[in-house]
Amino acid sequence: MSLSKETNDPQFMEQNTVLLLIGKSGCGKSSTGNIMFNSSVFESRISSSSVTRVSQTHTASVNNRSVMVVDTPDFRYSTHADFDSDSELKRALQLCVSGAHVILLFLPLSTFTEQEQEFIHWFEQKFGAEALRFTLVLFTHADKPHMRTLAELIRGNTQLSDFINRCGRRYHEFNIKAPANRRQVTELMEKVERLVSENTHSFYTLEMMEDEEKRRKEEERREKEKKERERQITLERVRRETEIRARREYEEAKQWQEEEKKKEREHQITLERVRRETEIRVRREYEEEQKKERKKLFKQITLKRLCVIAAFSVVSGLVLMSKKDSSLWMFMCGFITGGSAATAGVGCGFLCRLMWKSSFFSSSPHERPSVFRYFLLKTSGVVCGLAVGAAIGQFVGRNLLLVTFINGLAGAAGAWTALQRGW
Ligand SMILES: Nc1nc2c(ncn2[C@@H]2O[C@H](COP(=O)(O)OP(=O)(O)O)[C@@H](O)[C@H]2O)c(=O)[nH]1
Ligand SMILES: [Mg+2]
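ok -> structure tokens follow
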């Protein structure tokens, strides 16, 4: 039968030793309570979830000492959806009346896994360091076959042995599969009594847990603030570094751009200089080429003219000599007439060209005449030369038709040579 005491009675605390059972579900809390009282006061059976859903108390005599056991559900790994771990834990401590003289922390001996380590961590966080003064670790599942002794198992696990040390090396091995073994209960009660007297009958209270919670919250708040400050500092540092980097990159880009512009300008200047130098060189080469060409042409034309003049002089001389008398004088007369007619023809040709180049006929002296105009110019020059040559032949060449004709041809040929290329 469960007996609930919810008074703040100092007399009760003096007369009763309050044991608070804490542990994962299935680690034997209810069974241990039942064995201690030698009666099935707490519900106990194999289940995947916590069978004990609310804390229960039972007070009775164990080894001639009044003991109140507060059996609790699994506060850490309960799978019940509506289970409020914090308020249930608070209620469990309230059930302890003023507080718990001893916290019996249950750990399965056969399987000390990560979950058990995590459970220990949770216990220390939740109850605080102060609670370790009142804690006695109870190893259950001791009946399961394991090779090593409890002391060896504790030594072999650093985290467990550290925790046991923090609990003042207080632990006890309990076999719930041997309920008739009262010796394990007696030994447990001796350890409990020793702890109670060591703690001068003081107890772990709800206030201690609430203080621990406040302290933890305050620590968390401070930690959060510290982290926030650090975050702000980091942010500010990153912001400043980013700004500096961005500014430096901008300056570098600007400098690079300026250097590129400078290079481009220098390149343009070099290009322009090379272009100008090339232009000057090409022009000079072209002009020299032109000059050479003109000289060559001039020589050719001059030679042609001289040939024409000489040929017509000789022909005119010979014709006059054959028609009049065969004296050298007659030849000279004919020679001079033919030469003069051809030279006059050349003169006519030049005159025509000069007239053409004058602004009267063309807007520029370098303007090349069209094919038609060139034909007209040549024809008029040749006709002019022919007329002048014929006139010279007629008046200087002794009135001989043949001489007039030849000299007319000489004038025309002279004009023709003068009107050869040269624009
Ligand atoms: N073999 C063995 N089984 C155990 C031990 N402790 C608990 N159990 C089993 O786990 C079941 C639940 O035990 P219970 O005391 O209700 O665990 P609680 O959830 O911590 O209260 C029991 O019926 C046992 O079969 C132990 O030390 N040895
Ligand atoms: Mg239980």
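DSSP finds eleven helices and six strands in the chain.
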